[in-house]
């Protein structure tokens, strides 16, 4: 038996110091804790943690170092009616584990704390053979001269992607690296991102994931990964180099490579619930360590959970130890992995008091005053499944939010049944939502699609979901598609129908990228990616979800050369068009203002924004809510954009006209009077994505094709 020293209560988790490892585990209600060490043959050695400080059980083991696999067994009462579910037959993962090796082997042993015959009784079958193991890691890494890009919010272009799905089929990525952190760090992957104009990747969950048992039984997996069990550990399944600590180094290498390319890394994090599910779920970690401390329990029936997540449980961040875990985890990813920000899944679940959402919640206060976390990008998914859970526009300063009001306004407008006022407010940065709280346009994360729902191509192709592959009889997912699909269900052999669908994709992309606020693209939408109408592909770890790269990659030279697209068919030319949009946004500050458009005049006597009708006159108050008035133009004055340069000087820019026509028929526009500009160049048209630029004289007319958007730049 190795020497066991008392060790220290902090830091929590397993900390190697070069000579040995300190282990520390929080449990308020436990009566005893055993550290379980596993050798190469999975032989288990148990060590009692007898030292206890402020509910931290701790010990120091000389000679234990990186690569050592371990878990815990925690003794205490089995009394579900009082919220306690201790069971020493169940091996438990360390909530602070820096790396996790293996997956749950559902067929090898029963990993449930309760008995199969009666949930009120404990199950006594040892499950160590079925459980993944925690790994002691060496945190050292040569970051060289890694520098965070620190891209200002108004210059940010987000790109939501899945680490595995993005490169799993990429022909320009070495085969053994496809679908991994190293694959995302490859030259081919980064070349695509840079060519597209992406400044930040928003990664679907990469904290260690555990699939649900019922998915295993169906031959499926939790592909999206909103099933976290290790808040400090990179998911081992995305590592090419190994799972016994190698995933830590590989993840850091990915971040370093993306930073070198000027691309920020934002993690989609899931602190609202864990992979243990409801009261009949498996006992993997928190439930067996201290169920009554980690989870929100029903006060009237502590055997049940309060569920604001829809996933069976809710972490109780009201409790100091759980709040500390979340904050420690966030700081760990910033300080150890150099990530640049977070998107918080179901964020209202993190800020509830005893029941209601609390704008002064301890979590928000802690983030606001934290010297590390207050300086990174913070994005809320501003809704959960609890009462009053829809909180769009109500998060405080420092926070940006996924804006589904924007999504719906854009889809409805281009589908032909949305109002002009909603479109204009969304395009202008959603000031009605965010200005009252003192925030600017960058508080709005604009999107028209996300991982959850139809892809952009499917949005304009399918009227109804096609989710049979999920094995839920097509009952999952929302069977509502508010977008326009030409009146045809599914792909069409009619070239005219497919051409109109491609134009609708360009309309939505152009609206997204040129709106005030922060645009979020979804991986593959720039190339017409389809999921065959599946709008809930959360369990599809296959070609349904993976990006199809065709014969040679996209963008500037992954075997294909400039202008090539990843996918044939719907997406032909779409990549180049998207790249033109992001370039236009990058090069012109008028599309990425730091203050809201207000229509007021500036020193030159011109308003910052001016909406006009096809007859060239300003919109009247009644026009905003007239269903017949939908084709409109917008003048954007670029001389004073509200953007300040790095030298602290106002950034001057060109002025633009944007003209949108959601009608099926062509509309003739009278251009505004000459005081706004005497000559304009057509910069971009969704009806002619590859068209040559041409000049239009002021006081002239411009025929705008049906269902199209035109951008003109003032040249005189």
Task: Please describe what this structure looks like.
About 3% of the residues have low confidence. An 8-stranded parallel beta barrel has the order 12-13-16-19-20-21-22-23. Strands 24-25-26-31-28-29 form a 6-stranded antiparallel sheet, with helices on one face. Strands 4-3-7-11-10 form a 5-stranded antiparallel sheet, with no helix packed on it. It has 3 domains: 123 residues, Immunoglobulins (Immunoglobulin-like); 409 residues, TIM Barrel; 118 residues, Golgi alpha-mannosidase II (Immunoglobulin-like, Sandwich), CATH 2.60.40.1180. The chain has 716 residues and is α/β, with parallel strands linked by helices.
Multimeric status of the protein = single chain
Number of domains: 3
Poorly predicted regions are: 551-572
Sheet with the most strands: spatial strand order: 12-13-16-19-20-21-22-23
What is the residue-averaged pLDDT?
Answer: 93
Structural class from helices and strands? alpha/beta
- The radius of gyration is 27 Å
Residue fraction in strands:
15-25%
| Estimated helix fraction | 10-25%
Q: N- to C-terminal separation? A: 85 Å
């Amino acid at each position: 038996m190795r020497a066991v020293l008392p060790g220290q209560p902090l830091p929590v988790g397993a900390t190697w110091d070069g000579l040995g490892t300190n282990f520390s585990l929080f449990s308020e209600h436990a009566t005893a804790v055993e550290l379980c060490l596993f050798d190469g043959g999975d032989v288990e050695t148990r060590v009692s943690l007898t030292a206890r400080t402020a509910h931290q059980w701790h010990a120091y083991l000389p000679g234990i170092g990186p690569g050592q696999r371990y878990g815990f067994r925690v003794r205490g009462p089995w009394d579900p009616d009082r919220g306690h579910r201790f069971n020493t037959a169940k091996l438990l993962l360390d909530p602070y584990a820096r790396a996790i090796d293996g997956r749950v082997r559902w067929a090898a042993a029963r990993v449930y704390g309760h008995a199969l015959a009666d949930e009120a009784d404990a199950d006594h079958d040892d499950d160590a053979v079925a459980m993944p193991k925690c790994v002691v890691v060496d945190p050292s890494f040569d970051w060289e001269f890694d520098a965070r890009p620190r891209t200002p919010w108004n210059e940010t272009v987000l790109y939501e992607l899945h680490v595995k799905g993005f490169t799993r089929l990429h022909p320009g990525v070495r085969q053994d690296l496809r679908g991994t952190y190293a694959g995302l760090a490859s030259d081919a992957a980064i070349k695509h991102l840079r060519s597209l104009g992406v400044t930040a990747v928003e990664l679907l969950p990469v904290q260690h994931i555990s699939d649900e048992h019922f998915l295993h039984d169906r031959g499926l997996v939790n592909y999206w990964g909103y099933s976290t069990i290790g808040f400090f550990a990179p998911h081992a399944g995305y590592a090419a180099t190994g799972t016994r600590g190698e995933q830590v180094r590989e993840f850091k290498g990915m971040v370093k490579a993306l930073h070198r390319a000027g691309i920020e890394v934002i993690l989609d994090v899931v602190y609202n619930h864990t992979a243990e599910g409801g009261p009949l779920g498996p006992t993997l970690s928190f439930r067996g360590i201290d169920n009554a401390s980690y989870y929100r329990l029903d006060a009237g029936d502590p055997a049940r959970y309060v569920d604001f997540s829809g996933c069976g449980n809710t972490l109780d961040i009201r409790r100091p130890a759980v709040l500390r875990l979340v904050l420690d985890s966030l700081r760990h990813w910033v300080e150890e992995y150099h990530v640049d920000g977070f998107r918080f899944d179901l964020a209202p679940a993190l800020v509830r008091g005893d029941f209601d959402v609390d704008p002064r919640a301890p979590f928000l206060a802690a983030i606001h005053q934290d010297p590390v976390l207050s300086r990174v990008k913070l994005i809320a998914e501003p809704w959960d499944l609890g009462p009053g859970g829809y909180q769009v526009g109500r998060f405080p300063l420092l926070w940006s939010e996924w804006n589904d009001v924007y999504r719906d306004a854009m889809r409805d407008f281009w589908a032909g049944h949305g109002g002009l006022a909603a479109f204009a407010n969304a395009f202008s940065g959603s000031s009605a939502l965010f200005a009252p709280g003192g925030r600017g346009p960058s508080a709005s994360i604009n999107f028209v699609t996300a991982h959850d729902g139809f892809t952009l191509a499917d949005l304009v192709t399918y009227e109804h979901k096609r989710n049979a592959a999920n094995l839920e009889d097509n009952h999952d997912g929302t069977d509502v598609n508010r977008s326009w699909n030409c009146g045809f269900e599914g792909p069409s052999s009619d070239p005219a129908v497919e051409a109109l669908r491609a134009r609708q994709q360009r309309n939505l992309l152009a609206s997204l990228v040129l709106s005030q606020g922060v645009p979020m693209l979804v991986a593959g939408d720039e190339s017409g990616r389809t999921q065959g109408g599946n709008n809930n592909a959360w369990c599809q770890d296959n070609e349904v979800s993976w990006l199809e790269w065709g014969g040679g990659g996209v963008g500037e030279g992954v075997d294909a050369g400039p202008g090539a697209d990843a996918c044939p068919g719907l997406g032909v030319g779409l990549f180049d068009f998207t790249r033109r949009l992001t370039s236009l946004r990058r090069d012109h500050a008028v599309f990425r203002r730091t203050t809201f458009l207000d229509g007021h005049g500036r020193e030159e006597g011109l308003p910052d924004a001016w909406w006009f009708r096809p007859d060239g006159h300003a919109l009247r108050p009644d026009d905003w809510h007239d269903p017949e008035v939908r084709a409109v133009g917008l003048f954007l004055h670029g001389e004073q954009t509200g953007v300040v340069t790095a030298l602290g000087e106002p950034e001057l820019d060109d002025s633009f006209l944007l003209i949108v026509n959601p009608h099926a028929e062509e509309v003739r526009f009278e251009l505004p009077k000459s005081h706004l500009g005497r000559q304009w160049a057509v910069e971009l048209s969704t009806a002619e994505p590859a068209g040559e630029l041409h000049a239009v004289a002021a006081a002239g007319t411009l025929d705008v094709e049906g269902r199209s958007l035109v951008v003109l730049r003032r040249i005189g």
